[in-house]
Amino acid sequence: MANHVTEWLGAYHDGELRGARLRQIEGHLAECATCQAELDGIRNLSALLQDTASNRDFLLTERFVANLALSMPRGSKLPQPRNVLNIGWWLIPVGLLGIWLFINITLSLSSVVTLAADTGLLGGNLAWLQGNPLQMKWIATVMNLFGNQLGALGRETLSALNDANLFIVQLAGRLIPQAILAVSYLGWLLSWWLRHQPQPSQSVGSFSQS
Amino acid sequence: MVIPNAETEAALIAKAQNGNRNAYGELVRHHHPGVIKVIYRMCGDVELAQDAAQDAFIRAWLHLPTFRPGTSLRNWLYRIAINASLDVLRRDTKTADTDFESLSMPDPQAGPEAALLQKERTVAVQQAILALTEASRSVLVLREYGGLTYHEIAVALDIPLGTVMSRLNYARHQLKQSLQPYFIQMEIENG
pTM score, two decimals? Predict the structure, then answer.
């Protein structure tokens, strides 16, 4: 009979197969004398290994424990390097939250101060902040080259484009750091979740079917 | 010494992780027979096995704070035991020959001829195991003498499940070839 299943016989003998793979091997063994003989060989080997299980005279457990106690390093409490790692692990989300708070407070304060300067609420104290209207580099170049040839409509269009461009740049400047923080935090959460997943008991059969 | 349940073992582990030597002693009492069996099969020599066992339990004591509660202490100890065995074998250049004379009489009820055959078989098996590569031997010993499942072996040795199976298949294939005469002998004895 073709398609022998010899590579699965050890796992079958050890009771490691489940589901479809188990049924496949059982079905094959019922019809294939070669694989049945191979399985008998594995059983005989296992019996031989157990039959010759160690009959050496080792130290009795009590005596071993007593000897071990004398050899064990002294010290009331062992160093616990994991504690340091654990503290570092829990500091990650705290640090991310701190950075997020810092960025948002800074941006909010910046907006308030800029608004106050633009509306003149703080008098002349912040006049240095007002200066010229912000311009993108490209619009400055266009204005320098073609400013005289453009009509009022052209200049207004360029000005609107400049405002839109500035808005996008500022928005990106605010969103990108926050997006990085959010992704980092989600990554930490995922890692935490993975660490606390119970180990599923796999069988060779089940993994082999995937 | 029998530890009644996993909860008790967990309590002992927690105490031992805080430096309680008595609690660790209880854990050693419980796991020593299994560990020494695995180590002996890895080393093939009583003296080396005793050294490796002591080394393994001291290492386990030193690294106990890194042990993750909720996982199997036995599997963790077996992993340390395998590494300690390999280290002892590398350190000690003496070949781990199986000492025929030091074997105790396997079965006092059996006749002298049967006992002699049994001894001879025991030596042959141990030599065949020692002839395996370290990687295959570790997997075979943990399966046949440690009683670990494939998944437990994979975790203990930090290797994929498929590698466990292939190494075990290889080890069994090698042993079947080298121990072929003894299968026939066993069949004759068993009628």
Answer: 0.62
